[in-house]
Amino acid sequence: MSNACPRCGAMLARVHRSLVGRAMFRKVLACSACGYRARTWRLPFEKTATFVFTRYSRCIQCGSYRVRRLPGRDRIDSRSNHPLSVLLSLTLAPFYHCNPCRLQYHDWRPVQPSEQPETRQDSM
Q: Does one domain contain both 101 and 84?
């Protein structure tokens, strides 16, 4: 979605949403010249679907692939209480940590290869 109004070509600005609007739309843009409103719909269970239907582990909250596997639970960062993470914890799935949102969650899938930290090999 571009920031130009499709009717008059003026710039669109973000507007505040009501509580119902937050549940239905990701963002609402309005044209100050003609009053046109552009809305981006929120899909139901979008975060859960992106978490479930991926090959590699990704954050259950923000969807980032920048995660790392933890040897055990870190007591400082918060732990996910998403139903899928709780279910995976019952199967003794390992902990993963999301760097952008600092969330810990359970998952059986591996980390995406491009996001794994590179190991240094010193040649002698």
A: yes
